[in-house]
Amino acid sequence: LLAELTYTTNTRGHRATTAIDNLVRTIDIDTRGRITGDHTNLLDSATPGGLAPVAGRVFTWRADSTLTAITDQLRGTTRFTVDAIGRATSATRTPNTNPSNHTNRDTTTPRTPARAGTPAQSGNATGGVSAQENYSFTPAGVLASTTDRVIDYHNTLPVKVGRTTYTYDAAGRITRTVTKRLGKKPLVHHFYYATGEQPIGFTSSDEPNTGYRYTYDGLGRRVAKDTINTTTGEVTHRDMFTHTGNQLAAVTTTIDTTDPTRVGEGYVWTTDPATGETHGQIALTTSSTNGATQTPATPAATWSQARVDATF
């Protein structure tokens, strides 16, 4: 047994709380079934009330159920301006510089749990000034432009978005993208297909002599990703994917010629059997720590946003 999840529901049958070890996630839902709050807290006897905030979001809705604002306890507030038919025409993001007093619900500084039972120090959200994005649409309702880029179409397919141009095959699948860059050669990506819609191969001009190959099962689920030396044809790295239904459940490295010690490493994701939401991530490692953990308390704390997005 790795962990035990416990749940509660409200009077309307909606999931109200989820708890694992000493982490408690609470979902607030209004009488119309809209999520108005999503908060994660750490049980901590040193905090007034016994709950130390970890993360939280508050959602604001119009009477017609159009989302107008998201207040993130860590990152700040995003407000949306919408037109008469509910399309977002602008988004204004205001960073949160005082997470210790961000919402009425949470009055203590958010914590990042190092592991179950151990609150860790947290820092303020990234500071900065407010930023606004604007969006416009064609009479047909197709997105025509954003704040920093114009979108050009050929029939219904976007062929240029800002500095990036797109090439398609006869089936409407993207086969090539070219992004102009300042002071560097353009970034060129190629995509390769068999008979379906999913790519079976990919190359990037930033990675010469390297290609990627994707394998799918009969249900269209990706089951393998190979990194290939395009000069020799050798598979230098392979990741295998396991699914539960259509939900990705695990990824494991089975080949790594650069660092063979990574073979067997990977991740397993635990999910809520009722909602399908991911609740936990288990790291698979082949290194021995003799019973002591060498994993940083918050290993992703110093990652770039791109790495966070790719991992999680």
From TrEMBL:
InterPro entries: YD. It comes from the Bacteria. Residues 89-102, 121-132 have a biased composition (Polar residues). Residues 106-120 have a biased composition (Low complexity). Residues 87-132 are annotated as: Disordered. This is Type IV secretion protein Rhs.
